[in-house]
UniProtKB/TrEMBL annotation:
Organism per entry: Rubinisphaera brasiliensis (strain ATCC 49424 / DSM 5305 / JCM 21570 / IAM 15109 / NBRC 103401 / IFAM 1448) (Planctomyces brasiliensis)
Lineage of producing organism: Bacteria, Pseudomonadati, Planctomycetota, Planctomycetia, Planctomycetales
GO MF terms, alphabetically ordered: electron transfer activity; heme binding; metal ion binding
Keyword Cell cycle: no
Name the UniProt record assigns to this protein: Membrane-bound dehydrogenase domain protein
Signal peptide: 1-21
């Protein structure tokens, strides 16, 4: 870092320290649902920078810290510890609801910002790329002693050292497998203890000196290509590593319910974070199926980001769930039983949102073959709090006492691998009904009663102790297991169902009862328990026979969710061996349920051509007569044999437009010349409303699946798509900063003012009336050494008005296209010998005068409406800003309290002078080169927003790092990497896409500077403060 950058960082740190001396957010500053209270359970210096935590059977909290967080970017904070990060143990020894004991379990040089911890008995499982490490506390003193205790590298080969997109926590599922995930900061090459190897990669790289390259498209030992971030499970002995879903961006954790459902939240890419029920083997869709292309490359014309980012119109991707926009999700837990039972008897899914500064709540409800997720705020800082913008929840868990615990990273911002809290502060909060004191149940794992008590624990990894003990000797306590399967609490009953295969003949008999007569949840759990027992403990004849019978029976279930499970279980069964079941499952598709359709596609994985012949062709229906069911199945399978049928439907105007579009999209995923030629026919001779999409696909596929056919030049140019600007909102509160140089009321004015040294000039016409009225600025003239210049001859740089624009001159139209929805621009007009500006009060027009030398400004202003009463209520103001852009700015601590106008900030953001909106979107307007800034103020507190404007290279948003490509001809192309395959695709600062064949690339290297200019060179203190005020205003709830 250069001296200027270091100085700026120190200014930021000092400003943050000055802004708030608090080391934690007090409980009364939080909002939680009625019936809950927040208390501080532990805080610095008991712990620092908590990234993740787990709760043991005694209620102790084990925390991974990240004091060594991104030292390559945060060295100025001076927090680094050369001995490594640590795991700290916190305990409430007197039962008063607050921790009073804190000590280090281990500090290890192998721990560099670890992101996950699971406490499973005396095994402390820490996730820190490249390793999953098991520390075994042999003597149980909760202090790691290398002479007594053991350290094992359980798995290794995960990329993402000191990077957020890496390895996350281990949770024990109800089936006994260990569940975890890894982000898309690959490539990951991980071999389990039985020799099975996962190879996962994508085009994502950057953000860290440890992640300079990635390798997509590699096959794992199962012959499949797993892309990007991957969810995984493994046996506790280190064998049986299995991907359960993939193509995430950066899901922080997996939460597994007692029914075996998996939920997670994914993505700190600003536009489209999501919370999702994860269907087994599902493809989340962040990258292309081979991992080579980002979603931006494949975003179709007019396709919304929330659809494009998760490829929701592509066959083979699972539904995205709740896509809620900007954010950075972290820890997640599905609370099943605990102190919240009364308010949430169906369970409570809690997801930490560090960027938005809140814990999101959901009560997932089954719908069709999937779940609905209705979001609500569970915990957040009050908007009136001085510490609003500092709450950065990193993890959430249910304690052994049933309380909800939330850890706070505590910082002014998240993202870009930066932290600004020089104290490394952190807090753990406890959320319970008012006054609830902790009661951690004691149990003896040597007894059946103790094992059942542990299985009932609200804490995920504590219940694993009971599960393991009961499973290892299940025939002995089988009566207790059978009794628990009948518990009124469905979650507790489900935990026992997983033990039934191990509980001898009586256990299998009870399992059969549930498969035959149980409700949908019970049938799903029993089916999963039998299937997973085979996977966990190995094939046994009785299990295999029972499972095959269950598949056949449940394939005809009335519940689409039950049939979904059967479909998923057929993934590795050849179509020829399960054709009857597939036909029954296909008959159950209603034509609408996307979850069900994806499960059906999973059942046919690798055998799509044979499945298409069985499920579609054999129906003998003319493609023009396909219903939604047949069309949907054909789209999902899209084998080469379907090309002619897809083309026929796409060309027929008798087929609804939505379904023709579906057929065109299906053709695009068939990598054959016949498919490309069919697309060409649609693009040149198809219905008018489909030609553009077909042309776009022809150009898109030239860079990948259809490149070898060289048909691009035959395709028409895709149409240019202009983003919709939405409805106009009148802006009635624009106010330039400072006092006016001229003021006159009464509906008329004569002004002659000094403008020497003026950099900007603002004309404001306003009214104290509730009604708008017409007004004019007549003969506005600038006078200088070179003579007179009419202000009407200069283009204004920004304008807002309370009126709808009319008669817009051509030279203003370009600016108007970039104008914000907050208000249409004031209209410029000329009237022969008397130039004038026609406006309606209220309006403000701004000019940049920095290019000229002017001494005086004269103008006549008058209200000219039809009503004399309202005319008299119009007043005129003229503001002159003489502070030069690029002046030496005040210290950041002073800027935080600087006077500012959000409306001026809005005008500047969309102005021709700054062109912020060329790259960034705000309030639904602008470009998509950089991050969407509509909710950026929820991700970053005020000091970080200032830093982002003044020094954008200090913390480049993850996913927006720059890259430089040197071609063999010596040309250098700088910009954002869109695709790392062949060809390499780069988007430059002007939004231009550069497609570079791999053979023409001499070298690629990551840049260290943002493509955003340092605006401190262009703006005054008033303007920078106003830009920040605007971002804060639009980021409010």
């Amino acid at each position: 870092m250069n001296r200027a950058g270091m100085f700026l960082l120190l200014l930021v740190v000092n400003a943050i320290s000055a802004a708030t001396a608090a080391e934690k957010i007090e409980p009364d500053q939080f909002e939680v649902p009625d019936g809950f209270e927040v208390t501080v359970w532990a805080t610095t210096p008991q712990l620092y920078n908590p990234t993740n935590f787990d709760v043991d059977a005694a209620g102790r909290v084990w925390v991974t810290e990240a004091v060594n967080y991104r030292n390559f970017r945060n060295e100025a904070l001076g927090l680094a510890n050369a001995e490594g990060d640590r795991v700290v143990v916190l305990e409430d020894t007197d039962g008063d609801g607050t921790a009073d004991s804190s000590h280090t379990f281990v500090r290890d040089a192998d721990l560099v910002a670890p992101l996950g911890i699971g406490v499973i008995g005396n095994q402390i499982v820490v996730s820190c790329a490249p390793n999953i490490i098991i520390y075994t506390d042999v003597d149980g003193d909760r202090k790691f002693d290398p002479n007594v205790d053991t350290k094992e590298i359980f798995l290794t080969g995960f990329r993402g050292l000191d990077h957020d997109h890496s390895l996350h926590s281990v949770k024990v599922g109800p089936d006994g497998f260990w569940y975890f995930n890894v982000g898309n900061g690959g490539p990951h090459t991980v071999t389990d203890k039985a020799g099975w190897t996962l190879r996962a990669g994508s085009s994502y790289a950057g953000g860290s000196p440890h992640l300079k390259e990635n390798f997509p498209g590699r096959k794992s030992d199962d012959g499949r290509v797993w892309v990007g971030g991957v969810g995984l499970r493994i046996r506790p002995d280190g064998t049986g590593l299995t991907p359960i879903a993939h193509n995430f961006r950066n899901a922080y954790e997996e939460s597994v319910t007692s029914f075996g459902d998996v939920f997670h939240a994914d993505n700190d890419d600003p536009p489209a974070c999501r919370t999702t029920w994860v269907m087994e083997y599902g493809n989340a869709g962040f990258s292309s199926a081979d991992g080579v292309r980002s979603w931006r490359v494949d975003q179709r014309p007019g396709q919304p980001i929330r659809v494009a980012e998760w490829r929701q119109e592509d066959p083979g991707t699972m539904p995205a769930g709740d896509v809620y926009g900007n954010g950075a999700p972290t820890g997640i837990v599905y609370g099943e039983n605990g102190s919240f039972d009364e308010q949430y008897p169906q369970g409570l899914l809690l997801s930490c949102e560090s960027a938005r500064g809140e814990v999101l709540g959901y009560v997932p409800r089954p719908q069709g073959a999937g779940f609905t997720l209705e979001r609500f705020p569970f915990m957040k800082v009050k908007s009136t709090s001085a510490q609003h913008g500092w709450f950065r929840p990193s993890d959430v868990a249910i304690g052994a006492d049933g309380a909800i615990y939330v850890s706070d990273w505590y910082d002014a911002g998240v993202g870009g691998h930066r932290m600004t809290d020089a104290g490394g502060n952190g807090t753990i909060y406890r959320i319970t009904p008012p006054g609830l004191k902790p009661q951690n149940p004691e149990f003896d794992l040597s007894t059946t009663a103790g094992q059942i008590a542990a299985l009932k624990s609200p804490a995920v990894n504590v219940r694993a102790l009971g599960l393991t003990a009961l499973r290892d000797n299940a025939e002995k306590p089988n009566e207790a297991i059978l009794e628990l399967t009948k518990d009124d609490n469905a979650f507790l009953a489900a935990r026992a169902v997983w033990l039934l295969p191990y509980a001898g003949q009586t256990g299998m008999q009870r399992l059969h009862e549930l498969l035959e007569e149980g409700n949908a949840d019970q049938q799903i759990t029993a089916f999963r328990a039998l299937r997973r027992a085979i996977q966990f403990a190995g094939d046994q004849p009785e299990w295999t026979k029972a499972f095959a019978a269950a598949q056949r029976k449940l394939a005809g279930s009335e519940s689409s969710a039950v049939r979904r499970e059967v479909a998923i279980s057929l993934r590795d069964v050849p179509v020829s061996e399960c054709s009857e079941m597939l036909q029954r499952l296909a008959a159950g598709f209603d034509g609408w349920d996307r979850w069900y359709l994806e499960a059906l596609g999973t059942a046919c994985d690798g055998d799509e051509a044979e499945a298409y012949e069985l499920l579609v062709d054999s129906a003998g229906v003319d493609p023009l007569d396909w219903d939604r069911r047949l069309a949907g199945i054909a789209w999902r399978l899209h084998p080469p044999a379907a090309v002619e049928a897809f083309k026929t439907r796409a060309l027929s105007e008798d087929v609804p437009a939505e379904q023709r579009k579906q057929m065109i999209n299906a053709l695009a995923f068939i990598p054959t010349r016949e498919a490309a030629e069919a697309m060409l026919e649609i693009a040149t001779a198809g219905p008018d409303d489909m030609r553009g999409l077909a042309a776009w696909w022809g150009h898109n596929r030239h860079g990948n699946d259809w490149k070898e056919f060289a048909l691009k030049e035959l395709f028409p140019e895709p149409p240019t798509v202009v983003a919709s600007k939405g409805a106009v909102r009148r802006d009635l509160d624009f106010q330039p900063v400072g006092e006016p140089d001229f003021f006159a009321s009464g509906g008329e004015a004569q002004a002659d003012i000094n403008v020497r040294g003026a950099k900007r000039l603002y004309l404001l016409a306003d009214t104290i009336s509730a009604e708008f009225t017409e007004a004019e600025w007549r003969n506005p003239t600038l006078i200088g050494p070179s003579g007179k210049v009419s202000l009407t001859e200069l283009e204004w740089t920004s304008a807002v008005s309370g009126a709808v624009p009319v008669n817009i001159p051509k030279k203003q139209q370009n600016l108007l296209r970039r104008a914000m929805k907050a208000g249409p621009p004031t209209v410029l007009a000329e009237d022969g010998a008397a130039p004038k500006l026609q406006v309606r009060a209220r309006s403000v027009i701004a000019w940049d005068l920095s290019a000229g030398e002017y001494e005086r400004f004269t103008v006549t202003a008058e209200a000219v409406g039809d009503n004399p009463r309202t005319n008299n209520r119009v007043y005129f103001q003229i503001f002159v800003d003489r502070s030069p852009a690029g002046e030496e700015l005040p210290a950041l601590a002073d800027l935080l309290d600087h006077s500012a106008s959000a409306s001026l900030g809005r005008a500047l953001f969309f102005s021709k002078r700054l062109t912020c909106s060329n790259c960034h979107m705000a309030e639904g307007f602008g470009g998509e080169i950089g991050p969407n800034l509509t909710q950026i103020a929820r991700k970053h507190a005020k000091p970080i927003l200032f830093e982002g404007i003044m020094n954008p290279s200090a913390a480049i948003a993850t996913g927006f790092e720059t890259i430089s490509v040197l071609t063999v001809e010596g040309k250098v192309i700088n910009g954002l990497l869109i695709s790392a395959g062949d060809p390499v695709v780069v988007k430059d600062a002007n939004g231009k896409i550069h497609t570079i064949p791999e053979e023409d690339v001499e070298e690629m290297f990551n840049g260290k500077t943002s493509i955003m200019p340092e605006l401190k060179k262009l703006l005054t203190a008033d303007e920078i403060a106003s830009l920040v005020a605007y971002l804060q205003e639009i980021g409010q709830d």
